[in-house]
Structures are given as structure tokens and as C-alpha cells.
């Protein structure tokens, strides 16, 4: 019964002899303990409980457990975004005087953190081509503490020499961090292949519906895990219950979404390659991809859900293409359940000069596609019509 004298006291949750099938959403920020002794037990790990949502809450734990299961990890930490995961990992594991070797085609904000932000705190950073182990080795220094790579680069979809990089990290005793966002555990399992830390932008394929911004990071070594966790809790990089709840809901269909999207990507790549006006199609397992041997060696099953292509012409043809592709969202993201199209020269790679873009093979006619789960016939029909329209302009 509610207390008639005040509305301030909490109304009790209804008693029920049946259990909810869906995961409950628990937005509470604070948790009440019985006694100071009970709180001691909890903080010292003798009992399990929550105290304050920034330090942990049930929806984050349920989501983390699910991604742990996919990655073969333990004790994964949910962060407020993919960049929260990158930030917690780098700030938690590094100190002034340490050196980082990073892939030179990382996600734009990760590159910025390494180039502009970390050096302000005395961390040294170098960049190298992760498809070329000689270039990676040349970047090592005596104080190299950490190596950060992505398996598939954006947007040219080059495949890093993960076997070589893992061996190199082991030899020099550096912490190998793999951003597994593009690959997901369906295409690549970092912990089975020598990585020490795995991280994700959960925002992308894992959550899968473009309505959540979250990240995940897991470390093999409990000392690394603790450093990253303390950093995330202290700097406030942890995620909200509602976002965790949505992301967990998205994961129930992850395997189905992934299988269909990967299959679609392979077929769409094949169809695009045969079209007039298409200069080049990039998909990791195609025989004309520069790293196709490595892709079939290190990627499990197929070539994932991302493909890129280049059309004849320049900005005018690119504008005509996105205008004609009315049902394909022209949006700089990836991993949505529906197909999305991005144009690196005007979005992710706009800060580069035209020459720098040209050296990466990114012209004004270059597009990246995050392939979704639509019927493949429909996708082929829509892309064919849009490319045809682009060539008339
Ligand atoms: C999107 C992305 C990030 C950043 O994730 P947010 O959730 O947007 O902060 C990091 N790495 C890769 C590879 C990404 O695609």
C-alpha cells in the first residue's frame, strides 16, 4: 500500500508469480543497501550489488555478457560510445612517455585522439600501414606500449596483416588493441588471434538499428581491465540503461542480420562490378581485391557487409547518384539493418587534401556501402538505376 501522507515515498513494484520474458529496463541511478557492512561486502566483491549507475547497472551487465559471449571475453565494459571505448582504453592503459603504434587508416576520431589529443598528455604516437608488416615494425620504438589496429580499413576495405601484427606485439611486449567494429565477432575473433584488448562501436552492427550510441571494451589481463574500467567510471564514459537495453534487444537478431547482410554484400558487389559506369568495386573476398588472399585466410566465412565502389565522373555524378537512390539512406554510418550509402570525400575523409585522398584511391566518384538485409533483388535494382542515372548527368 502507498503511504497516504506523501507521494515522495516509492510505490512498491507489483508482486508477480510469473516472470517477464523480455529484459526489464532498470533506469535507477542509485541503489539502496541494507547497512554500511553490506556496502563494504559489495565494494570488496564478497557480494554482488549495484551502488551508482555510472559504476555499473543491470542493463549494462546484461549487454556486456552478451557481447562477451560473442567475443569469448570476460568482464566486458560498456561505454557511452565507440569513442568512449577507445578513450577509456587509451587513457586507462597509457601514461606520459609511452609510445603507440597505430594503423594509419583508423576511424577518423581515433586518428584525431592519437594525433592531437594524447600528445598533449605526453603520449607519443606513430602511424603505419597495417597491411604491411615492414611498415608496422619500422614504427616500433623502445617505449612502444600499445598497438591499435582495425582489421578492415575504411573506406578502401584493406585487410590488416593480423597474424604478423599479433606476432610483432608479442615479441615487443606491447598491448595489442583491436577495434573489431567493422568485422564483428562473426568475421574475426581478436582474442583467438593474439589480441590483448578488443573494442567496439556497439552503435554500428551490434546494436544494428541506428538508434543507440554505445561502445564495448574487454581486456584479457585483469589488470588492464581494471585500468580501463576505472578510467571509464572516473571520466564518465559509461553507458545509459536505456541505450544498453536497446542494444541488447538488437543483439537477439544479430546473427540473422549479419548472415543476410554479408550474403547481400557479396551479391551486390558482383552485380555492381558488371555495370557500365562502375570503374571499380572493392569487396574483401573478390579475386580483384588487393588483399583477397589474406581476407580468406583471416576472415571467418565471408567478406563482411561493407563494400565500396567508384563510378566514372566527379562530384556532379556523385550528387546525381545519391539523388537517384531515394530509398538508400545517404548517411555517414554503417551497420544499420537497412543499406546506407556514404561518400568519403564529402564526409569521413573531407579533412584530407585531394592529393591525400587520391593516394588512397578515393576520388569524387568513390562510395562506400553498408549493406543491409533488404531483398537482394531490390538492392540490385535500386543501385543499377541510381548508377545509370548518375552517368546521364
Ligand atoms: C563508428 C566507429 C567508432 C566510433 O564509434 P561511436 O559509437 O560513433 O563513438 C570507432 N571505430 C570504428 C571502426 C567505427 O566505425
Provide a compact summary of the structure:
The chain is α/β, with parallel strands linked by helices and 393 residues long. The chain contains 14 helices and twelve strands.
Layout of SSEs?
Layout: H1 36-43, H2 58-71, E1 77-79, H3 82-93, E2 99-103, H4 108-117, E3 124-128, H5 133-138, E4 144-150, H6 162-172, E5 175-179, H7 184-187, E6 197-201, E7 215-219, H8 222-235, H9 241-251, H10 254-273, E8 278-282, H11 292-298, E9 306-311, H12 315-324, E10 329-330, E11 340-342, H13 354-360, E12 366-370, H14 376-392
Parallel strand pairs: 2-3, 2-4, 4-5, 5-6, 10-11
Antiparallel strand pairs: 1-7, 6-7, 8-9, 9-12, 11-12
Helix pairs in contact: 2-9, 3-8, 10-14, 12-14
The chain binds pyridoxal-5'-phosphate (PLP).
Amino acid at each position: 500500500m502507498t503511504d497516504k501522507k506523501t507521494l515522495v515515498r516509492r510505490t512498491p513494484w507489483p508482486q508477480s508469480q510469473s516472470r517477464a520474458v523480455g529484459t526489464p529496463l532498470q533506469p535507477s541511478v542509485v541503489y539502496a543497501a541494507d547497512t554500511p557492512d553490506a556496502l563494504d561486502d559489495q565494494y570488496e566483491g564478497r557480494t554482488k550489488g549495484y551502488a551508482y549507475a555510472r559504476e555499473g547497472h543491470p542493463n549494462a551487465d546484461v549487454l556486456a555478457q552478451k557481447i562477451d559471449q560473442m567475443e569469448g571475453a570476460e568482464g566486458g565494459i560498456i561505454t557511452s560510445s565507440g569513442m568512449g571505448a577507445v578513450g577509456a582504453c587509451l587513457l586507462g592503459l597509457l601514461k606520459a612517455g609511452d609510445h603507440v603504434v597505430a594503423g594509419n587508416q583508423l576511424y577518423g576520431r581515433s586518428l584525431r585522439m592519437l594525433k592531437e589529443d594524447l600528445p598533449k598528455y605526453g603520449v607519443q604516437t606513430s602511424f603505419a600501414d597495417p597491411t604491411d608488416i615492414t611498415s608496422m615494425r619500422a614504427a616500433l620504438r623502445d617505449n612502444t606500449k600499445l598497438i591499435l589496429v582495425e582489421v578492415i580499413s575504411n573506406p578502401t576495405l584493406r585487410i590488416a596483416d593480423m597474424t604478423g601484427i599479433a606476432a610483432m606485439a608479442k615479441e615487443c611486449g606491447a598491448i595489442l588493441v583491436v577495434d573489431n567494429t567493422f568485422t564483428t565477432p562473426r568475421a574475426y575473433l581478436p582474442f583467438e588471434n593474439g589480441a590483448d584488448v578488443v573494442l567496439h562501436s556497439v552503435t554500428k552492427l551490434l546494436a544494428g538499428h541506428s538508434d543507440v550510441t554505445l561502445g564495448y571494451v574487454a581486456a584479457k589481463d585483469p589488470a588492464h581491465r581494471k585500468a580501463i574500467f576505472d578510467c571509464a567510471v572516473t571520466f564518465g564514459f559509461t553507458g545509459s540503461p536505456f541505450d544498453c537495453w536497446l542494444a541488447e534487444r538488437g543483439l537477439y537478431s544479430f546473427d540473422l542480420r549479419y548472415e543476410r547482410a554479408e550474403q547481400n554484400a557479396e551479391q551486390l558487389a558482383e552485380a555492381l562490378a558488371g555495370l557500365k559506369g562502375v570503374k571499380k568495386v572493392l569487396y574483401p573476398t573478390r579475386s580483384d581485391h588487393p588483399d583477397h588472399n589474406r581476407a580468406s585466410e583471416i576472415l571467418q566465412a565471408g567478406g563482411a557487409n561493407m563494400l565500396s565502389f567508384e563510378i566514372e565522373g566527379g562530384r556532379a555524378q556523385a550528387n546525381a547518384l545519391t539523388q537517384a537512390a531515394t530509398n538508400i539512406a545517404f548517411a555517414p554510418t554503417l551497420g544499420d539493418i537497412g543499406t546506407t550509402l556514404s561518400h568519403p570525400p564529402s564526409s569521413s575523409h573531407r579533412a584530407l587534401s585531394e592529393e591525400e585522398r587520391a593516394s588512397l584511391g578515393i576520388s569524387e566518384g568513390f562510395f562506400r556501402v553498408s549493406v543491409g538485409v533488404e531483398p537482394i533483388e531490390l538492392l540490385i535494382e535500386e543501385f543499377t538505376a541510381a548508377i545509370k542515372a548518375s552517368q546521364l548527368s
